Amino acid sequence: MKREEIKVCVMRVGGTNCDAETQRAFQELGVQAETLHLNELIKRRNLLDYQVLVFPGGFSFGDYVRAGVILARWLSAELDKELKTFIEENRPILGICNGFQVLVEYGLLPGFEGVSAYPEATLATNIPQGYNCRWIHLKHENKGKCIFTNKIPTGKVLHIPVAHSEGRFLFPKEKEQQLLDKLYENDMLVLRYCNESGEYAEGSYPTNPNGSFHDIAGICNREGTIFGLMPHPERALYWWQQPDWTRREQVPQYGDGKLIFESLIDHLTKRF
Amino acid sequence: MTQSSLYSSRDTPFSLHEINTQNASDQQLLEISSELGLGLSLQEMKQVQAYFQAQKRNPTDVELQTIAQTWSEHCYHKTFKGKIRIDGKEINSLFKTYIAKATREINPRWCVSVFEDNAGIISFDRGYAIAAKVETHNHPSAVEPFGGAATGVGGVIRDVLGVWADPIACTDVLGFGPLDYDYTKLPAGVKHPKYVYMGVTAGIGAYGNNMGIPTVNGAIYFDESYTGNVVVYCGCIGLLPLRKFRKNAQAGHVIVVAGGKTGRDGIHGVTFASAELTEKSEEVSRPAVQIADPIEEEKLKRALMEIRDREFASATTDLGGGGMSSAVGETAERFGCGATVDLSKVPLKYAGLAPWEIFVSESQERMLLTVPPENLEQALAVFEKEGVEATAVGKLTREKRLQLSFEGVTVADIDMQFLFKPPESMKTATYPVVSFEEPEFPEPENLTEALLQLLSAPNIASKESVVRTYDHEVKGNTALKPLHGKYAGPNDASIIKPLDNSWKGVAISCGMNPNYGKIDAYWMAAAAIDEAVRNNVAVGGRRIALLDNFVWGNPEKPERLGSLVRACEACYDIATAYRTPFISGKDSLYNESPIGAVTPTLLITAVGIVPDIRSAVSMDLKTPGNLLYLVGNTYPELGGSEYYKLKGFLGKSVPKTRATQARKTYYALTKAVGEGVVKACHDLSEGGLAVAAAEMAFAGGYGLEMDLRAVPRKLITRDDFLLFSESNSRILVEVTEKDREEFEKLMKGRVHAEIGRVTKNPRLIIQGLKRPAVVDVPIADLRASWKRTLSSGV
Fold it and tell me: What H or E segment, with its residue span, contains residue A186?
């Protein structure tokens, strides 16, 4: 499939607010990207016209119940069939920040045994509590399964910002270790919070900005086609979005966020 | 309503009263004004009485409430528009005489719309313009900090939507009482500053974050006088394709109300805003604070932008202070029309609202549009698609009357000309005569200690713990961030790059020096303008436009009004000298509580254009070996300074602004930034030279060696005064050795001197006038002191 033939659907509902920059990131890399309201997708029934589905950041439906949960319920009520087909065909789904919360609430992530009826993990209220907007470092942990990061060498440190108040990744306490082992076994762990030189945060704030278990910032499903992450790669696309570009003599044209979009596009151009 | 002969209930299936003004005595008129919460003076009530006497009937409650809202200080700005007698002369409108006059005289081609629409509009690039507006939301925030602040943000965003602009950035400047205020000293009805601080900052973050608009610039000030009356300024910047800027409503166009439903929240917000806070404010005015729902506004914004792009509507405005009464009235007035509205069509949160409540309610997230009848269906369909309720409630008419009905009954019918001609206010002012003294105290031995203490002073200390709770990067267009780099250095301004196909940026900065206002409101206002401008210049902003926002005490008190006059004089003088026009502004008066009035406070917001964001400059030191220049003269001006405050004094020698010189200096510096010879740039403000130098050092992670003997100065012989004087118009600049000559050439004729060098050794070492190393301290210690005070969990 040629790059310019790839069609990305950036889905929004009331309260979604990172759709424009997410769409821009895809367009910058030469693929077609469209922002569509969920109401339109339901009306047109055309989800399968797209090769990629993206849930961008924001506060879908105000996140008034729990982050991501209302949109997840809407999706299962209104778009379940198309979404199941989309997933069965291994079409990629990306969830950024609020999108990650939606994927977890829907049961798509981690999805140890496929789509789960109940969330198997959660993105809980940050510790320390409150909204936190800052640039953090991430270590790429995936060994090659995640199609969103397969152009990134394992162990590479990325610099990308986070901005959320509910991003503390947790498993049920009693199954914590067991499920973590499963993440490793199936190569589903993708990003962990670390410092500039790549040492894991080990829970220390602000290197780990939200108190996530095992410093987890992003995971994928067993197939590596569904990826959710709390950080915002679309805010680390251009050089001038970097927090320290005025300090550097030579700034690379793109930020680390580009690697994620590029990996996905690369995968699609090769595979289809 | 009381059972007196003044009121009679009409025989309608809903609540409607007639008020017997025909034969009312003066006493009774005032009674009516107070019982109905109208906030009208006797002079105003008499004008109302005369009008209805001529109509040979009594007004309804709807009519009286409508008039009260329209004539309120908040909506009509009586003080700024009225006459003021001072010192034997008469000022006919502060606004016209000083603020608008400055803009008119500067008359820049790039001002698209000033003081006319909901927001000021200046041209930008590629057919786009920038809209800017700043509002205050003090009284609601004093009663309910979270809701008051959140709806303040929501309101100013709607102002920007009201000129069809897409909001791209928010600002917030806040004033609180000291966080360690003694609980036992708090008067009844006053909330503790810490509670207010937590609520207000959370409210601001919640609204901006939820709507996905980056909050990029702001400030937090602590002052005793804000204890009883918190100061909350909310600003919004928008982007607007000029060819879509529609304002051509005509008679026959349909009036549409869109967004949230109308309820009893926010009744009498404007009359509340135009009165002093009292012990009873909580009880009496709680319903005046609205309830925020940012997601509703986010949806509303999407729909409005689509309607703008498809050109379905002929005008829009927000429903803010005064609710529908202001929005409908002002829209009709602007387009030379009248209006008819059926209030029973307005969607309600719950049943049982009287028509007057519907008309004056300030429920949030509502916009008003006028739509040519042929576009109505398509416009409503856009709202429906976004899940936003929109309803046609009336239309503009040729006849210049405001006619309201409810369930088929006429409930108001007022002549527009009468409605928009309140009696002219005449107030008396006196210039404040207060004598201040310069303190005398010996120069401390240890100035390192004084510097560390200053960095921890609440007004200087890092605001990182608050700034990080605001999303300052959403939309991905923040090219210069409020917190810079690894060490979160305090940038002087933020830069937004709003267009994908242009390198042009918008620099947003602010200036506010409330402490100077205690000595002299003139120099306080001058300093605020200078600070806003120099912050903008420091990052590379030029072609700067200003917004003025006054927060003052009760203008009925002649001295308070006198200081307001002084501040306005400064606004004119300095703005014309700098050739920086005012494009929008607002005044919030009556900021008094049982503890007293707020100190006269003027916030100046500056919006500059950065021709190419690639040449933007941040404040952190870049490379060891580089030279450090100080631009501008230092005078013994410590009156109102943070240093004096630290020593327990106010002082007298308030910093003055020497505008003619300063303008030339800024011009030269702007050129130097454009030439790329400026590696880092930081303005000198609270805490003076020492604090600015320390911030540059610890933000960059490098040390600095400075020599005070090289500092350009007048009449200063003490190291502490030279280090901590707050003289205006000074900027520190980092330049490479290679660019020394070029920089010297560009700055020729302007006061400047090389005063130090960036060092690899991470220490700040300052050679005194006579003593060696009056300051010698690791930058890590400076940074720690700076970060300590407001670190999380206040």
Answer: none
A177 burial (CB, 10 Å; 0-12 / 13-18 / 19+) is exposed
| Token pair belonging to B427 | 């107030």
d(CA B490, CA B619): 7
Specify whether the CB–CB gap between A161 and B483 falls below 8 A: no
Please list, residue by residue across B275-305, b when 16 or more beta carbons sit within 10 angstroms of its beta carbon and e when fewer do: bbbbeebbeebebbbbbbbbbbbbbbbbbbb
CB contact at 8 A, B446 and B455: no
Let me know: does B779 contact B698? Beta carbons within 8 Å. Answer: yes
Map out the domains of chain A with their CATH numbers. Answer: 3-271 (3.40.50.880)
Copy the structure tokens of residue B124: 């930008």
**CA dist., res. A16 & res. B211, Å (int):** 8
Q: State the burial class of residue B712 (Cβ atoms within 10 Å of its Cβ: 0-12, 13-18, 19+).
A: middle
> Position of tokens 């306490």?
A173
Q: State which amino acid sits at residue B703.
A: G
Tens of pLDDT, residue by residue over A120-141, are 999 999 999 999 999 999 999 9
The answer to whether B60 touches B412, Cβ cutoff 8 Å, is yes
Predicted-assembly ipTM surpassing the 0.90 threshold: yes
In this structure, what token pair is assigned to residue B153? 């943000």
Can A146 be counted among the known catalytic residues?
Answer: no
Give the per-residue pLDDT at B467. Answer: 96
Burial class (CB in 10 A: 0-12, 13-18, 19+), B475: buried
Mean pLDDT by groups of 10 residues along chain A of 272 residues: 95 97 97 96 94 97 91 94 95 98 97 92 96 97 97 97 98 97 98 98 97 98 97 98 90 94 95 72
Reduced to 3 states (helix: H, G, I; strand: E, B; else coil), residue B722 is helix
- Of A166, A42, A31, the C-alpha closest to A92 is A31
CB distance B530 to B639 below 8 Å = no
- Rounded to a whole number of angstroms, the distance from the CA of B214 to the nearest CA of chain A is 11
Dist CA B517 CA B525 (whole Å): 8
The span from the CA of A224 to the CA of A229, in Å, is 13
d(CA B613, CA B654): 35
Residues of chain B with confidence (pLDDT) below 50? 1-3, 793-794
Alpha-carbon Rg of chain A, whole angstroms? 17
**Total residues belonging to chain A:** 272
Residue to test with chain B: of A246, A249, A256, A261, most B Cβ within 10 A: A246
What is the sign of the dihedral through the CA atoms of B302, B308, B314 and B318? positive
Phi/psi at B171 (nearest 5 deg)?
Answer: -130, 160
* Residues B175/B178/B183/B188 CA torsion (nearest 10 deg): -30
SS3 B72: coil
What Cα–Cα distance (Å) separates residue B663 from each residue in B284, B425, B658, B735, B742?
49, 37, 9, 21, 20
Asked about B472 being catalytic, the answer comes back as: no
Contact check, Cβ <8 Å, B614/A235: no
Question: What does the block give as tokens for B702?
Answer: 């490098």
State the Cα–Cα distance between residues B411 and B66, nearest whole angstrom: 11
Could you identify the residue written with the tokens 């903008």?
B536
Q: What is the end-to-end Cα distance of chain A in Å, rounded?
A: 5
pLDDT at residue number B3: 46
Query: Which residues in chain B (614-673) have CB-CB distances under 8 A to chain A?
Result: 614, 616-618, 620, 622
Residue B1: the pLDDT is 45
Check A163 against B385: CB less than 8 A apart: no
